[in-house]
């Protein structure tokens, strides 16, 4: 049985204001992480979300996305995973995530 529990960092922060979210998403590495999370449609192991950066850099990018309210960290069977906060983002900034991910997907296909 898979046990999923949120980490004990602190309560999940609210989705940040639009400029903060856009600043978090403007970085190509973070945008690719969000694109992969969106396409996965669930929690994903951290290492599956990046290719060309080292672990400490990835940790920094995850922190920026968490602080903007874009993702949340989970522990699943003792492994750290990230999950996109789709519903929270759509409530706070309707349509933004879909637009950004669609554009990122089109850019990857071109």
Short note summarizing the structure:
The protein has 110 residues and is an alpha+beta fold.
Describe this structure in words.
This protein has 110 residues and is an alpha+beta fold. The chain has a single domain (12-102), classed as Arc Repressor Mutant, subunit A (Orthogonal Bundle), CATH 1.10.10.10. It has five helices and four strands. It has a four-stranded antiparallel β-sheet. A hairpin with a 2-residue loop joins strand 3 and strand 4 (79-84). Helix 2 (28-40) crosses helix 5 (96-109). The mean pLDDT is 91.
Topology:
Layout: E1 4-6, H1 18-25, H2 28-40, E2 44-45, H3 55-67, E3 71-76, E4 79-84, H4 86-92, H5 96-109
Antiparallel strand pairs: 1-3, 2-4, 3-4
Strand order of the largest sheet: 1-3-4-2
Cα end-to-end separation: 41 Å
CATH architecture: Orthogonal Bundle
CATH superfamily membership: Winged helix-like DNA-binding domain superfamily/Winged helix DNA-binding domain
Look at the structure and give the mean pLDDT. Answer: 91
Round the Cα radius of gyration to an integer and report it: 13 Å
Q: Assign the structural class, choosing from mainly alpha, mainly beta, alpha/beta, alpha+beta, or little secondary structure.
A: alpha+beta
CATH topology: Arc Repressor Mutant, subunit A
Largest sheet: 4 strands, antiparallel
């Amino acid at each position: 049985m898979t046990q999923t529990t949120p980490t004990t960092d602190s309560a999940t922060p609210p989705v940040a204001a639009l400029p903060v979210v856009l600043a978090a998403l403007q970085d190509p590495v973070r945008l690719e992480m969000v694109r992969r999370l969106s396409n996965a449609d669930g929690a994903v192991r951290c290492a599956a979300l990046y290719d060309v950066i080292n672990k400490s850099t990835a940790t920094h990018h995850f922190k920026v996305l968490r602080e903007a309210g874009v993702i949340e960290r989970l522990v699943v069977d003792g492994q750290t995973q990230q999950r996109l906060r789709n519903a929270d983002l759509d409530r706070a900034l309707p349509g933004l995530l879909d637009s950004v991910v669609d554009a990122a997907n089109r850019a990857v296909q071109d």
